[in-house]
């Protein structure tokens, strides 16, 4: 198996990483199970890479070794970076992600309604953050 970064990700490497998670959360089995559900949802394309990263960062909070190890499995262009000691994730990053999601949704809608400018203009009134004429 090869990650989109071109790095070799072996089945043994993936199993070893899952074992690290299982050991780290031996007393909190639900966190391990939650991680598996996140991975299944991602594989089935029910959630996006950004959502996987956010959920994993929240789930593995305080386990920097697991977070850094997860980078191996992320596609090219994505990387978990730990905040500096004591620093919280900034609201700017969260807002930027939200803006990206809003933009992505608008593009999907625009593609769906291509050629139907009247419908697209009407729909824009209902989208979050849409400007009103």
UniProtKB/TrEMBL annotation:
Q: Name one GO biological process term.
A: negative regulation of transcription by RNA polymerase II
Subcellular localization(s) per the UniProt record:
Nucleus
Presence of the UniProt keyword Methyltransferase in the record: no
Q: GO CC annotation: what is one? A: chromatin
Question: Mind listing the UniProt keywords for this protein, alphabetically?
Answer: Nucleus, Repressor
Please tell me where this protein is predominantly located: nucleus
The yes or no answer to whether the keyword Repressor is present is yes
* Pfam families named in the record: PAH
What GO molecular function annotation could you give as one example from this UniProt entry? Answer: transcription corepressor activity
What the entry lists under PANTHER family is as follows: SIN3A, ISOFORM G (PTHR12346:SF0), SIN3B-RELATED (PTHR12346)
Query: What is the official name of this protein in its record?
Result: Uncharacterized protein
């Amino acid at each position: 198996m090869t990650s989109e970064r071109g790095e070799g990700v072996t089945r043994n490497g993936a199993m070893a990483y899952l074992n690290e998670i299982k050991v780290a959360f031996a007393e909190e089995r639900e966190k391990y199970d939650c991680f598996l559900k996140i991975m299944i949802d991602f594989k089935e394309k029910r959630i996006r890479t950004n959502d996987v990263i956010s959920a994993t960062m929240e789930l593995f909070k305080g386990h920097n070794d697991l977070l850094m190890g997860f980078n191996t499995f992320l596609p090219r262009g994505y990387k978990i970076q730990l905040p500096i000691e004591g620093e919280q994730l900034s609201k700017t990053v969260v807002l930027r992600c939200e803006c990206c999601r809003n933009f992505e949704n608008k593009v999907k809608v625009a593609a769906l309604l291509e050629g139907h400018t009247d419908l697209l203009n009407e729909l824009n009134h209902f989208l979050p953050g849409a400007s009103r004429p």
